[in-house]
Amino acid sequence: MTKTSIGVGLIGTGFMGKCHALAWNAVAATFAETARPRLVHLAEARADLAGAKAAEFGFARSTEDWRAVIADPEVDVVSIAAPNPFHAEMAIAAFEAGKHVWCEKPMATSREDATAMLEAARATGRVAVLGYNYIQNPVVRQMEAVIRDGVIGEVNHVRLEMDEDFMADPDAPFAFKNGADSGYGALDDFAVHPLSILWRLAGPVAEVMTDQAKPYASREGRPVETHEIATSLLRLRSGASGLLVANRAAWGRKGRIAVQVFGSKGTIAYDQERMNEFQLFTREGDERLQGFRTVLSAPVHAPYDRFIPAPGHGLGFNDLKVIEAHELLAAIEGKPARIVDFETGFAIEDTVHAMARSHRDQRWTAV
Amino acid sequence: MTKTSIGVGLIGTGFMGKCHALAWNAVAATFAETARPRLVHLAEARADLAGAKAAEFGFARSTEDWRAVIADPEVDVVSIAAPNPFHAEMAIAAFEAGKHVWCEKPMATSREDATAMLEAARATGRVAVLGYNYIQNPVVRQMEAVIRDGVIGEVNHVRLEMDEDFMADPDAPFAFKNGADSGYGALDDFAVHPLSILWRLAGPVAEVMTDQAKPYASREGRPVETHEIATSLLRLRSGASGLLVANRAAWGRKGRIAVQVFGSKGTIAYDQERMNEFQLFTREGDERLQGFRTVLSAPVHAPYDRFIPAPGHGLGFNDLKVIEAHELLAAIEGKPARIVDFETGFAIEDTVHAMARSHRDQRWTAV
Amino acid sequence: MTKTSIGVGLIGTGFMGKCHALAWNAVAATFAETARPRLVHLAEARADLAGAKAAEFGFARSTEDWRAVIADPEVDVVSIAAPNPFHAEMAIAAFEAGKHVWCEKPMATSREDATAMLEAARATGRVAVLGYNYIQNPVVRQMEAVIRDGVIGEVNHVRLEMDEDFMADPDAPFAFKNGADSGYGALDDFAVHPLSILWRLAGPVAEVMTDQAKPYASREGRPVETHEIATSLLRLRSGASGLLVANRAAWGRKGRIAVQVFGSKGTIAYDQERMNEFQLFTREGDERLQGFRTVLSAPVHAPYDRFIPAPGHGLGFNDLKVIEAHELLAAIEGKPARIVDFETGFAIEDTVHAMARSHRDQRWTAV
Amino acid sequence: MTKTSIGVGLIGTGFMGKCHALAWNAVAATFAETARPRLVHLAEARADLAGAKAAEFGFARSTEDWRAVIADPEVDVVSIAAPNPFHAEMAIAAFEAGKHVWCEKPMATSREDATAMLEAARATGRVAVLGYNYIQNPVVRQMEAVIRDGVIGEVNHVRLEMDEDFMADPDAPFAFKNGADSGYGALDDFAVHPLSILWRLAGPVAEVMTDQAKPYASREGRPVETHEIATSLLRLRSGASGLLVANRAAWGRKGRIAVQVFGSKGTIAYDQERMNEFQLFTREGDERLQGFRTVLSAPVHAPYDRFIPAPGHGLGFNDLKVIEAHELLAAIEGKPARIVDFETGFAIEDTVHAMARSHRDQRWTAV
Fold it and tell me: ipTM of the predicted structure?
């Protein structure tokens, strides 16, 4: 079997830029069937950093001009991990240069930009993947299988919570994320993550009724313009009812994405803070022995087996990005791939925009 | 010290009737300062059962006519544990006969009846206590102290979930609770419980935005008229935001009342299914050692010490009723008591009625 | 059905005395088939307390002389909750007076005294029950059923831990329990509890290899004579291997009795600090969905249903004593009863004595 | 800063071979200060696999003869992930060729071979690291800091459990691990792992009293020669008492390494199945609010921050190997490194040999 080697460009070397770099370094050694990508060109806006980051991350060339990456004929796919306001321009330029795109979420800071990105992806037919790595967790994949196989029956109710505490300190200074330019607040920062999982488990949301709240009205004397807390009632297209809450000011929560899915025959529950397990209750068997079981991640939950052949040893957050890279490469090769493409990503973000409109209008709002 | 001995009447010998009986038998042995009540008169509508239940429960006399209990001059306080539709008539008659009343929740099946009960309580000045035993948990009392003492700072967000699964089976026959005569569904069956805890922890609700859902549209070919699931956005009078969900069809949940309270300095979490512990996070101390701690119930959490002098040994559901009986007796003696009186109980139930109106009108509704 | 009413005497009104009193007050109201016992006579060595305790606990008469209780012709059964050194004299006197005995563990402070008690019980044929309430937990009973029904196959390995922290503070003054007069230390204070559970789940111990340790050699300048920590290898008569550890100096543990039982088809785990649940793993079904399940106590786990008809609401430590009282009354009526009688209790305590000998001799020791 | 680039050779491409390969691919991108190693030469005994594995893992050359890797002048360090019986020959050859060695545990299948390896390491002065990745967990490192900083006071008692279930099925066929040639059984397969953690937390073991057991005497009619279960009493050199148990036949346990460490001021607990958290109890502060806290792994627990800048997102098993590679490279550069070198590894394995002797002799045995 001859395998095509893909040339990779990377724009951005911060939190998610490094995460992409780690994934590009690991994907071939993890997935035997995947051709080893060539790490061709890296862009980092700070000229003093670009060379060092290329050396660290194993890229052959570096630049401070992201357009050079996109122009590089050896680059087949571009990882976009630059700040959100740049996503649209970069992605559209990449598509127009014939490149595939792996862009961190959110697509853009405005619905107009996101629409333009989606249209560019459609027009060029290039592979267009958004960074929604939580759905790549083998445990989440197994929960999907549980639902698809009817183990918990028909889903009739869902609950989603996403909480962290980086905005929980009332005495912290006014920051970029406290200003209106940064977006809605917890709503766009967080809600897309549980919604991406919900999309896989129970499909799209039809209507939302949303409220937002500011735990701290001002910081350093300046009014806070974003909302740290968003709460929303959901009606799913399937008819199921639901709740979503996002909170950036939840002391003690660090990476909580808690999901509960109730069906006619059972229930599943999951918390990203314990990402190597999920809870399952089914109504089957001896009633005296029924209970929520804790299922630990294991080789039987593909593709956990590609990382570790022994059960219960645990994957990490960065491993999910490796799986995402593998799925992206599969898509480029024309194989079926389990990704959040621009179509789905746009729909997820549109759900968030509907929530914001619902809050503004104080009424149920269709997505 | 001479202690007054209170004469007790009991109406009803089912689930909660037995629970009251156990509490009346235990309260004096548990709380040394409490005079041993005299178990005077018991009413059970089924004539064939009344005598046997009196013998079991230790009551001196029995009757099939509840009015005989109320008319009994030796009875000072009446436990009302009869079906909900009878509460109003019984309580009002008891008040008018000069008795104190300990009535199971809800007060009544209509707001009009509840209003009449409240007015009778006010008019006679008798002690009027509703059965909200969950707030009597020493762990809940400690959570109140945590908040009152400012340990988690100012509360800005709350989440309440109450779930059981006795209506989860789609194949179960049409039952009384599926008909409109039984009330709203999960809303009035469940929501008052977490709301009573919320009342203690963060005060009253000002506005609600509620949705209700039917996981199963029909049973045995008959349309289901009640809603097994209710979801609600909350705005508290304090300004805090919140969520409440109640679900009678949540497979695997048996007595879950999950409470999360977020403050400016910390977070508390509680689940009634593990009623002898709560979780506390505070932002204090070495950041490398911060985390949610599991606090086990112990003698330092009064009045746990009255039951067991050793920590971590655990109280049970029925013990909470013993504490409630003790508080009731304190109220009768004119001492400060930690109870849900008819005023507060009426307000809690009114919150539920506001939720039902919100669902009907599809808009934010003031309580 | 005519039911015999049993006359009860109680000696001791401390921790366990009160626990017995609560059980005697509750047993008839909890178990409908049980005749209401008459609370006849209470002994409390402190004359100033005896009358008050009788009033609190509902006993008709009181005395400061325990012999008066035993001599009382209306007393049929004597609860012995006096300090351990008195158990032998009291129990033997009670048997000789023709009374049934419900004695707190341990039987006695010496093997000789325990032997005499056992012989008195045998000679008189009276019902002789020791206070081992942990085995009365419906959850423990269900674990027994799991094993008896072969759900986890043949048991091949067990682990027992009992930990509290009341001796954990190195700066606490020298106390009675630090002196050799009080016994071995954690070994006799704690080990009998997990051994009583083990007895029900996997049968008796054949051989032990034990070590004891003193975390703090002295207190207030006086050498500590007892051992706060005992560790033991076990070989069960069934052939299973095992471990037992008891620690009175385990910071943070409050009432931990952790039990793990491994079998050829599954595993169960339990912790008394969460006494309303146990964990069960079986190798059955889809491997992708296997995991330890948390089974919550429920009415299907008899006799939970006698306390509460709804699942997941939770029993408490004191409720276990009510069940024990019920079993005792059953034994008195000649029915099958689930108790630790003097034969079994003697064997359990003998296991502890063998552990002490093993520690002394530093070798495997037969029980 | 000029950084030296290390040339890497890898022998073996199975479970641990792949784990090494992933680490070599990731280490430079994870740790900015680490020079990117050159992946030079890979040996895989199966000629048909060698080339493919080199391509997958990113090695420049491949061979079916491990001696070629050791002879390669471009190779500076050799990863030995071949079956245990080959470790000694390979490691000694590597040392003699002037290479550094990173060898999977156990060192060898006999104490003689291990001794020879240790002597070769000493004689050549090359860096000699054993694969004990569990100690590299930032959570374990934080537990060390907790103890070193006196947060839980002086350690007086420890408990170690390691359990998996790959030998739990009584109906599985007779396998290599059931024969005496494979070693002792759970003792050498598992015990070194918790002992390596213990070494970091509380130092070496002085004396052991060990028992071993066979849950299933035979498989396919052949007597099982190894012991799936080992239990051991421990006396640490520090004077602390302890327990260790290892079980390869523990249904439902998948990668459990449960550690409890008790001190004079607090307690820590850890379970490798939830490797991103540990439990801490300290006796400090308001007694009503004390409890075991769950500390989630976070950037404040170095070097978690090198993988993810956000707390609570979770590392995986393979990430621990990346940390180990980084420490190995530090050792090669002459910097302080947190590793299990051959000296320590030999001592850990010697503890296991002492346990086997103790079992044979049925008595306390010095390490």
Answer: 0.96
